[in-house]
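Shape matters. As here.
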Amino acid sequence: MKLREGKVYRTKDFKKLSSNPTRLARSLMQEGKLRKLRNGLFHVPKKSIFGDVPPSEDAILKALFGSQPYLKTGPSVWNSLGLGTTAIEAIPLVYNKNKTGLEQVGRKKFEFRRVRFPKKPSEEFFVVDLFQNLDRTGADAGELKRALALALQKGRFNSSKLLDMAEKYGSRSVLDSIMKVAADTF
C-alpha cells in the first residue's frame, strides 16, 4: 500500500500492512509520513511552498464514513439555489445515519446531524433543507418565500417534486410553508 498525499486514513486501513496497525501508524507518524487528525484518523500531508496542506473536507468525510452514506449541505449549497441567500459557512453541516453533534477533526470542525436524506438529493430537496435550516442562514422567511414563488413561476423547480421532498424530509411547518407558496403560485 502506497501512502498518497492528501489522503486520510483510518487505523484499520493499515491492517493489510501489519498485524499491529496502531504501532505502524505511530511509526509512520514518527517518520513524518503521517499526521494525526484525531484518535484513529491520520493524513498524509501534501506539501506546498507555504508548508503542509491540510486534507480536504471531502477526504476527511470519506475516511470518517467509509461506505456509509452522508450528505454535505449548508450555505454553499443553499446559496447556489438562487433564492437570495448569501450565508457564509463557518462549520460544514453533514447529514449522516449514525452521529449527531459538533466534532473537531484536525483543525476542522463539522456539525453532524443524524437525519433522513435521499440517496440522490435534488435541488428541490435542498430547497426544503434551506427552509428547514432558515435560522442558520440569517435570511428573512418572507423574502425567501417570495423568491421561491418567483422561481416556481419561472419553472426553476418542479413544484410536485418540491412538495414530495417537503412531505418526506421537512418538518410540518416547512411543509405548510412550501404548500402555501406552491398554492399561491399556481
